[in-house]
Amino acid sequence: MEQKLFRMVQEAYSNVPLYRDKGVEIQEDMDSSDIPVLTKEEILSDWERAISSQYLMPYLQNTLSSSWTSGSTGTCLRVLWTKGQFHESLFPLWMLRSYFYHITPTDRFCYFYNTPNVSQKQKGDVAYETIENAMGFCKENLSEENVIEIIKIMQEYKPKWLMLQPSIALILADVIDNCMEDDVLDIQYIELSGEMLLDQHRNYIKRIFGCDVVNQYGCHELNSVAYECPSGQLHCLESNVHVEIVEGQRSLPDGEEGEVCLTTMNNKVMPLVRYKIGDFGVLDHQHHCSCGLKSPVLYLTKARSITMVKHEDGSESTPYLFVHAVDSVVKQYGDIILQFRVIQKEYTYFQVILVVNDEAYDEMEDLSDSLEDTFLNSIHETKMMDCEFEFIYTNRILSEKHLKKFSYFISEVES
Predict the structure, then answer these.
(1) Pair 189, 214: CB distance under 8 Å
(2) 36 — alpha (psi -120 to 50), left (phi > 0) or beta?
(3) How far apart are the C-alpha atoms of 42 and 109, rounded to whole Å?
(4) pLDDT at 74 (0 to 100)
């Protein structure tokens, strides 16, 4: 193992109870396949045992930063950081943004969120927030009228770039294409992440906005994993993550497809070692990319995709509205939801499966009514107001072997 990777793995296995319980003695000359892989479900079984003993006091004093992810499959995980380690994890991404596309931390940008980070502002039916040099918009209720209003607010704000999911970028592009002037926004750069980026979608977004459209691959648990250079290659950000492709426990050689497996190089509070995130790909260490970067190139073969909520009139809504609803429950009741899945059975009938911790499950008879009110009152999509929701509670993690992968939302309504 390379020295920095060895030190990170050794520190994790020395200080984190979750790893100490595995009984593996970390040695510099050992093969990575000798180190057990890690899944979200392992962490969720006893979350606090994934925290390093070196950071227990800051954790108890509530001075650590945290990020919360529902993931592509609706498995909810809270990850702790120090602010310094969090910012260090983003440094290689900012270096390449600046080097390749002249985007700096002081440039104004716009993004979309599930749950607000600060107090929201309101303009008509549009909710938004401003933080330093950034303006964010709520992903809910993205009707044509609201998207037009969002674009007008962006016009006044004058962002240099946008950070979006492909599905959100497509909604903006479609409204501009059909309802507004093509040059309504002077955007110099768009960064897409969080979902599988298809060539036809990229080409459409690039045609409408007339700027660089760049893919950034990452996850909330570790931040950025790989970044696209001007030659179109996803280069691994080695100073933030060590990337492997695995089959079961075994690390695969270049050219063989398997699961993406990541090890953090910066988060010592809650270090994730050989952590599988559910995506599939192929690595290439021997490339000769014309951009000049030597770091491995990652080819994603199967990653997060999105299914839209369908309405009887033929329109669609983003399923992020369900992520926002779960966020609202977590904010109200704490980290009681371990996993969730929403299934659209009919146009106006949805099944909501909530996996909660044992303590919440035992209290669900008293808790369910207020929890469901919180969930439903957080959905502001107009076309969802008269829908029926059936809630199902369990304290058993849903096995991905028996569920459609890459989706916390599934629609069984035929297009």
Answers:
(1) yes
(2) beta
(3) 37
(4) 67
**15 neighbors 52 (Cβ within 8 angstroms):** yes
- Above 70 in pLDDT, residue 184? yes
Q: Which residues contact 356 (CB under 8 A, 6 or more apart)?
A: 336, 337, 338, 364, 393, 394, 395
Q: Which of 351, 388, 356 is nearest to 371 (CA)?
A: 356
CA atoms of 200 and 197, how far apart (whole Å): 9
Joined together, the tokens standing for residue 204 give 């459409």
DSSP string, 313-377: TS-EE-THHHHHHHHHHHHHH-S-EEEEEEEEEETTEEEEEEEE-HHHHHTHHHHHHHHHHHHHH
- Alpha-carbon distance of 118 to 367, in angstroms, equals 27
Give the phi and the psi of residue 159 in degrees, each rounded to 5: -70, 150
Residue pair 245/257 in contact (Cβ under 8 Å)? The answer is yes
With beta carbons less than 8 A apart as the criterion, state whether 92 and 102 touch.
no
What is d(CA 395, CA 292) in angstroms, rounded to the nearest whole number? 50
**Res. 398: pLDDT tops 70:** no
Average model confidence (pLDDT) across the chain = 91
CA–CA separation, 13 vs 290, rounded Å?
Answer: 39
Position 415 scores a pLDDT of 66
Helices 364-377 and 320-333, packing angle to 10 deg: 130
Distance CA 325, CA 153 (A): 25
> What element of type H or E holds 393?
strand 388-394
Cα distance between residue 293 and residue 277, in whole Å? 25
How do residues 58-68 score in pLDDT, each as one tens digit? 999 999 998 87
Which region holds residue 221: left if phi is over 0, alpha if psi is between -120 and 50, else beta? alpha
Nearest Cα neighbor of 323 from 348, 336, 341 is 341
Instruction: Provide the token pair at 158.
Output: 């004058």
Contact 299, 281 (CB under 8 A): yes
Phi, psi of 19 (to 5 degrees): -85, -40
Which tens digits make up the pLDDT trace of 231-266?
999 999 999 999 999 999 999 999 999 999 999 999
Q: How far apart are CA 90 and CA 225, in angstroms?
A: 10
Tell me if 195 sits within 8 A of 64, measured CB to CB: no
Domains and CATH numbers, the chain: 32-107+160-306 (3.40.50.12780), 310-411 (3.30.300.30)
Please report, for residues 1, 57, 311, 345, the alpha-carbon distance to residue 414 in angstroms, rounded to integers and kept in the order given: 50, 52, 11, 10
